[in-house]
Amino acid sequence: MIRNLDMTTLRSFVAVADQGGVTRAAASLNLTQSAVSMQLKRLEEMLGIALLDRSGRRVALTAPGEQLLSYARRMITLNDELVGRLTEDHYEGQLTLGVPHDIVYPVIPQVLRTFNTLFPRVKVQLRSSSTIKLLEALDRGEIDLILTTETSLHPGGETLTEMPLRWVVGRDALIWKVRPLRLAFCKYCIFKPIVLRALDAAGVDWDMAVDSDDDRAVEALISADLAMGALLEDSIPPHLAALPAGCDLPDLGAQQINMYAARAGDEVLDELGAMIRQGFGAAQAPLLRKA
């Protein structure tokens, strides 16, 4: 007997896998937890197999669930591509997305690729800049959607996730032992005042080795062991390293990754925001796999 898979249940299954559980998946899909749980149960009953191992504190994929996840992603992508191609004349225009350079990867390229599949005639212009400049551009109406790195949320925004802020140095660097501590930051880096306040409170002498407009120049100086800086834990490039605990430097806490939209009720803009929301949720909460 032929059994047809339902795209809605597949989307719920993939969302649970990406978000790490039913609660976060339901939020990303704008559904109730009970609705997502019912869809998962229906999918398991139709296939006659267990897709999720619910015996632990955290939901995990079974081996058949892992196999289905690969197929489900491809089916959803193909479905969305077909719908996008057939309805592409319904949506066209341009959106501007602003993202600080240190949180562009890995989520944003994946989001833009999927968005282009769904809305091939909508051009997304990506603007990489500092949080301060992006907030100003949003206020001036120059940009449609922005992500920021902040210690708190402004009115009208949404917090997607949090990441630890870490001290960064070059590989095998010793600069962190030098006093006064030599620092390198971009002129408008929102992390700079956080670092300076933490050092002053801890009584650590510091010196600003470079205050540049060029992120790459700052990274090069740090990589050369001529200064040190601070970056979000998940955005540290391979040529730099986070200082381990116990280096006699103050803890820098965590930063929120927030999202702000210029307007509500725009279907295409809302869809882009939903993809970004799901992307950061998946990056921060991968689902465990049980053998």
Per CATH, the class of the largest domain reads: Alpha Beta
Mean pLDDT: 89
- Label the structural class: alpha/beta
- Sheet with the most strands, sense and barrel status: 7 strands, mixed
Strand fraction: 15-25%
Number of helices: 9
Mind telling me the C-alpha Rg?
22 Å
Query: Low-confidence stretches at least 5 residues in length (pLDDT < 50)?
Result: 285-291
Task: Explain how this protein is built.
The protein is an alpha/beta fold and 291 residues long. The chain has three domains: 7-86, Orthogonal Bundle (Arc Repressor Mutant, subunit A); 88-162 and 255-284, 3-Layer(aba) Sandwich (D-Maltodextrin-Binding Protein, domain 2); 163-253, 3-Layer(aba) Sandwich (D-Maltodextrin-Binding Protein, domain 2). The chain contains nine helices and twelve strands. Strands 3, 4, 5, 6, 9, 10 and 11 form a seven-stranded mixed beta sheet that branches. Helix 1 packs across helix 3 (33-47), helix 1 packs across helix 9 and helix 5 runs antiparallel to helix 9 (267-284). It is globular. Residues 285-291 have low confidence and may be disordered.
Concise summary:
This protein is α/β, with parallel strands linked by helices and 291 residues long.
Keywords:
D-Maltodextrin-Binding Protein, domain 2; 12 strands; disordered C terminus; about 25% strand; about 290 residues; Arc Repressor Mutant, subunit A; alpha/beta; 3-stranded mixed sheet; 3 domains; single chain
